[in-house]
Design brief:
Number of domains: 1
Order of helices and strands: EEEH
Number of strands: 3
Largest sheet: 3 strands, antiparallel
Radius of gyration: 13 Å
Structural class: mainly beta
Mean pLDDT: 81
């Protein structure tokens, strides 16, 4: 049985101290992630 899911939406909120991620799959199940943002390079917090 495959554990692959079809993602239907992703949203990112990057800020000075934290970056948040919200991911929703085809069944409406969602995952929220949070990571520290590097003030000198916000892309590091997203990755």
């Amino acid at each position: 049985m495959s554990k692959t899911k079809n993602l239907v939406a992703m949203a990112f909120d990057t800020g000075y101290t934290m970056s948040d991620t919200f991911i929703i799959d085809e069944k409406g199940v969602f995952i929220v992630g949070k990571a520290q943002t590097a003030p000198n390079n916000e892309s590091e917090g997203i990755l």
